């Protein structure tokens, strides 16, 4: 009788252990898949001090969560983020402008954001306003400044390629605006959100620098996955489907209103 009782206890323990192992297996199977993204701080789009990390991290987090995946963000300088993602050490990176060279290395998501680029000049150098003054300044400029490892707006990129515009590369747009204020460059082009938020951090309302005329270019920014990763195409398809659904439901517009439009 005692032997039977001990045997029953043993079987109960084994059954309990099996149940725990099964539960652990179910939990593990149900745990969301993870994608790791290499990116760098880029105010106001990517802001390590903000609760949601800025517009791009907040958007990517929600898009992946929509189809059951989790986003992990790792801080890397832009050049290193590019190289390590291209080599497959990260699942993806953002935000990227399209270019033929980049298209050869990466698969691109549908647009995360459309960004107008503006031309900024010193207020005391303005001879007028509107697009006529903007075009005159853009064509007469001999020296400008732009972010390192980034593609410039098309009109200025063309002048650099033609050899009649010198560009100084820096790590932060605030450095460009300081150079413009000091007269060391003639003009600075910047995305509307980044340009206005940087000037507000430097000078508050007003200040010695202003945008002139309308946009000189409009770009779309994307998330990328390395082509060498066999999972990249499936991830791109899932991401785009979730992004489209969040756009239809108003989530994307809400994020832009809360995290970007206030930066203009």
Features of the shown structure:
264 residues, 9-stranded mixed beta sheet, 10 helices
Strands, helices and their partners?
Blueprint (H helix, E strand, L loop, with lengths): L1 H29 L2 E7 L15 H12 L2 E7 L2 H9 L5 E5 L3 H6 E3 L4 E10 L7 H11 L2 E5 L6 H9 L3 E5 L2 H9 L5 E5 H12 L5 E18 L5 H17 L2 H9 L5
Parallel strand pairs: 1-2, 1-3, 6-7, 6-8
Antiparallel strand pairs: 3-9, 4-9, 5-8, 5-9
Poorly predicted runs are: 20-29
Q: β content, as a range?
A: 15-25%
How many beta-strand elements?
9
- DSSP helix fraction: 40-55%
Overall average residue pLDDT: 89
Class of secondary structure makeup: alpha/beta
Distance between the termini: 82 Å
Work out the helix count.
10
Which overall shape is indicated by the principal axes computed on the Cα atoms? globular
Rg, alpha carbons: 25 Å
Q: Helix and strand string, N-terminal first? A: HEHEHEHEEHEHEHEHEHH
Give the biggest beta sheet: 9 strands, mixed
Give a description of the structure:
- This protein is α/β, with parallel strands linked by helices.
- Helices cover 47% and strands 25% of the residues.
- It contains 10 helices and 9 strands.
- α2 (55-66) packs across α9.
Task: Write a brief structural summary.
Mean pLDDT is 89; it is low at 20-29. Helix 2 (55-66) links the parallel strand 1 and strand 2 (69-75).
